[in-house]
Write a structure and sequence with these properties.
two-stranded antiparallel sheet, mainly beta, binds zinc ion, about 140 residues
Length: about 140
């Protein structure tokens, strides 16, 4: 949970720095392959009747290259702005679910291990990043 009290924001803004495991914001292995905890930094301020949460998220993501099918990982950083209208009945805001949804949306379905990945030879199946084609 990345939870804060709306009242705490009112006076001078608020900053949250947390490192949470993916379970901490309800992410499952099926949804996203993370190889590290998630580093979350949030700057929260109140603008008129709104709470704005500028959220920076980084984590080590695991992927399978869609060209050579090799497993690889890379640290990805994303920034999100969340905007909540102040509601006198809502005392706390939990950003965990918001972050969970944004991370799933931002996670690419197709990704290459490197931009010039040479892929796999359709003839002999060699990973052309690592070995030579054995076809004639
Ligand atoms: Zn590749
Ligand atoms: Zn080949």
């Amino acid at each position: 949970m990345i939870k804060f009290s709306v009242r705490d924001v009112a006076s001078k803004g608020l900053e949250i720095n947390q490192i949470v495991p993916k379970e901490g914001i309800g992410l499952s292995d099926e949804e996203i392959d993370l190889r590290s905890p998630i580093t979350i930094n949030v700057g929260i301020k109140r603008v008129d009747n709104h709470i704005i949460a500028h959220t920076k998220v980084s984590a080590d993501h695991g992927y399978m290259c869609s060209r050579c099918l090799e497993d690889f990982h890379e640290v990805r950083r994303n920034e999100y702005y969340f905007d909540f209208e102040v509601n006198p009945e809502v005392e706390y805001i939990d950003l965990g679910e918001e972050i969970r949804q944004e991370m799933i949306l931002a996670d690419p379905a197709r990704i290459l291990c490197k931009s010039d990945c040479k892929g796999i030879c359709p003839g002999c199946g060699a990973n052309l990043n690592k070995e030579k084609c054995k076809c004639k």
